[in-house]
Design goal:
Blueprint (H helix, E strand, L loop, with lengths): L2 H9 L4 E10 L9 E4 L4 E3 L4 H16 L7 E6 L11 E9 L18 H8 L6 E6 L3 H10 L4 E7 L13 E5 L15 E4 L4 H18 L4 E4 L3 H13 L4 H4 L2 E2 L12 H15 L5
Parallel strand pairs: 6-7, 6-9, 7-8, 9-10, 10-11
Antiparallel strand pairs: 1-2, 1-5, 2-3, 4-5
Length: about 290
């Protein structure tokens, strides 16, 4: 279960205080936009652990107990000796109280429909954005990658030409799309999508890569096109794509093999870890 679904389930029955990182300076455990939802006896998410999180949870639970109206507030924490931490940075935390679904207590600062609860959290800090990932292929590696990405701040579009390949239960940040021909889905991908290509067929893979390169030529909005496979596979694909009229500069936009260096093992889970790490690295350098 991902944090979004767990938060929504708990909020249906009890109140919460959402603590989000409003801003940071220097060395800190998590980035701005990260959040933790604090309930009476549970919490969902994390702002980095350690004593600063302990202090934030204590403060949040004090706000939960308050009977009077609670307005959103911010508090500054220096991660130094007074907190038993040596990061040396500064975190400004934003506290906001949310009533559970159906609550009629007018004293709460925020009341939101259950299905928009997580959207309200994201609205606290606009720079907290999910990374768009489009994954073509529902095989063993594709499933392993989606499993990892579903636990990260990513919005995943999972595409295959075989409709029956998708599991029945999915995380809230994963959307499945049946597309036949599969490359037709490329035209409708979200802008700035990071594309991963690993269909059951090399012929499909080639058509998807070609469609991505055409979109990149026309719009320039696919910052990463990653193809699973060996250097030999890519050499074959290069020749075929050259025959389709793609230039050397255009072909240089494709990454094959995918995944970070140094990850040993060909198990789907091992490949998935390497690919997820590569996508996390790309978060620092692309929109």
């Amino acid at each position: 279960m991902d944090f979004t679904a767990e938060f929504q389930q708990l909020l249906a029955h009890e109140d919460a205080v959402v603590v989000s990182i409003a801003s940071t300076q220097g060395s800190v455990p998590r980035e701005a936009g990260t959040w933790i939802a604090v309930f009476a006896t549970k919490q969902v998410g994390t702002i980095g652990g350690g004593h600063v999180e302990f202090e934030a949870i204590t403060e949040a639970r004090a706000l939960l107990k308050a009977k009077e109206s609670v307005k959103p507030t911010t508090k500054r924490y220096v991660l130094g000796p007074s907190l038993g931490q040596c990061c040396g940075g500064v975190m400004t935390l934003h506290y906001e109280k949310y009533s559970c679904s159906g609550s009629k207590n007018a004293g709460y600062s925020s009341k939101i429909p259950l299905n928009s609860a997580f959207d309200a959290i994201l609205a606290i800090k606009p720079q907290f954005q999910r990374q768009n990932v489009a994954l073509f292929g529902g095989g063993h590696v594709g499933k392993a990658i989606v499993h990892i990405l579903s636990t990260l701040p990513m919005q995943v579009m999972w595409i295959d030409s075989r409709d029956e390949i998708f599991p029945e239960e999915l995380a809230s940040n994963v959307i499945c799309e049946h597309s036949d021909p599969v490359q037709a889905a490329v035209n409708d991908l979200a802008a700035n999508s990071h594309v991963l290509i690993m269909s059951f067929s090399h012929a499909e893979d080639l058509d998807i890569v070609a469609a991505c390169l055409l979109r990149q030529r026309e719009r320039g909005d696919l910052p990463f096109i990653g193809l699973i496979g060996s250097k030999t596979k890519w050499a074959t694909f290069r020749h075929r794509l050259e025959d389709r009229g793609f230039s050397e500069a255009e072909l240089a936009h494709v990454t094959c093999p995918i995944g970070v260096d140094g990850v040993v093992g060909k198990e789907p889970q091992a490949i998935a870890v390497g690919v997820a790490a590569q996508l996390l690295q790309l978060r620092r350098t692309t929109p």
